[in-house]
Design a protein that fits this description.
Blueprint: H1 2-11, H2 20-46, H3 50-75, H4 79-106, H5 110-119
Helix pairs in contact: 1-2, 2-3, 3-4
Length: about 120
């Protein structure tokens, strides 16, 4: 998780006004997370475990955070509104990650929950 968080911090350098180097790093980080998801989803199905649950929680939250951040950047024009939207997205992402971790620790976990849904 710390590695993913550090990647997120590096990729969001310069507060949204990233130069070409930071933009390239962000694009690379998004691709790394997407490839991680491609590998994690079948691995979670084949080997459900606590480590897999927490890895999924981290990667899914980061992937969603970056996607919603791009929506805010593209469609919210006013600077003050954009800052408020990004603060809201950060709060939503933090709550999402905390909720998924809570679910993993106090309930069955993401992998087993998906398997239970498929059994219905």
């Amino acid at each position: 998780m710390a590695c993913i968080w550090r990647l997120s911090v590096l990729c969001s350098a310069q507060g949204g006004r990233a130069g070409s180097k930071a933009a390239s790093l962000h694009w690379t980080g998004e691709r790394v997370v997407s490839v991680l998801l491609l590998g994690l989803l079948p691995a979670a199905y084949l080997n459900p475990s606590s480590a897999m649950d927490y890895s999924l929680a981290a990667v899914l939250t980061l992937h969603s955070h970056w996607g919603l951040g791009q929506v805010a950047t593209d469609y919210v024009q006013a600077s003050a509104l954009q800052k408020a939207a990004k603060a809201g997205i950060l709060a939503l992402s933090a709550l999402t990650f905390a909720g998924l971790c809570y679910f993993n620790y106090h309930d069955v976990g993401i992998c087993k929950a998906v398997a239970m849904l498929w059994k219905l």
